[in-house]
TrEMBL record:
SMART domains per record: Pro_CA
Catalytic activity: hydrogencarbonate + H(+) = CO2 + H2O
Organism annotation: Paenibacillus aestuarii
Protein name according to UniProt: carbonic anhydrase
Enzyme Commission numbers on file: 4.2.1.1
Transmembrane segments: none
CDD domains hit by this protein: beta_CA_cladeD
Length: 192
């Protein structure tokens, strides 16, 4: 069982003081917040490919690296990172072969019903303005999705205009990064 294994490992981890090598400040050394996909292939690959060590960046993970709502939890975390945790840049990193390109809201809704979520619940949410099919929507192009997330962040009324917002796409096999949006071009007053 995952939880039992985790707690057993954690006891040894703490007893052996393995945590010492991970100790750092809560402020990101490289003054950057990274929004990335939750894909398991990126857990260690992304920081290595971006030359990020423990303590260098605030890393936010969400399905598809999508910032879908300007006042959702991802956007709130970006704002806190900028104003309270000294982040000076934002980087949205999507990846090739993303699972969000395969998400089918209709099929996912059907799986919900098969797992016990009532049709009435889904209809009630729909009636209340939460369109499950829109909310669970995937995307066709990772580069376009990254651009859209960059725009949501860049145009947010609470993001200062001197914050560069970059967009990248990473290859989950090799770690190669492609620039989709160079935030420095949109923020000429940014001091590197």
């Amino acid at each position: 069982m995952f939880l039992d294994e985790t707690i057993d490992h954690n006891r040894r981890f703490v007893e052996n003081k393995e945590y010492v090598r991970y100790q750092t400040s809560k402020l990101p050394n490289k003054k950057v917040v990274v929004v990335s996909c939750m894909d398991t292939r990126l857990t260690e690959l992304l920081p290595k490919a971006m030359n990020l060590r423990n303590g260098d960046a605030k890393i936010l993970k969400t399905a598809g690296a999508v910032v879908s709502h300007p006042f959702g939890s991802i956007m709130r975390s970006i704002i806190v990172a900028i104003y309270d945790l000294n982040a000076h840049e934002v980087c949205v990193v999507g990846h090739h072969d993303c699972g969000m390109t395969h998400v089918n809201a209709t099929a996912t809704t059907k799986k919900m019903i098969e797992r016990g979520i009532s049709v009435q619940t889904i209809e009630t949410l729909d009636y209340a303005g939460i369109k499950i099919k829109d909310w669970l929507r995937g995307f066709d192009s990772v580069a376009e999705s990254v651009r859209q997330s960059v725009e949501v962040i860049r145009n947010h009324p609470l993001i200062p205009k001197d914050i560069p917002v970059h967009g990248l796409v990473i290859d989950p096999e090799t770690g190669e990064l492609d620039i989709v949006e160079n935030g420095y071009k949109s923020t000429p007053d940014f001091e590197k």
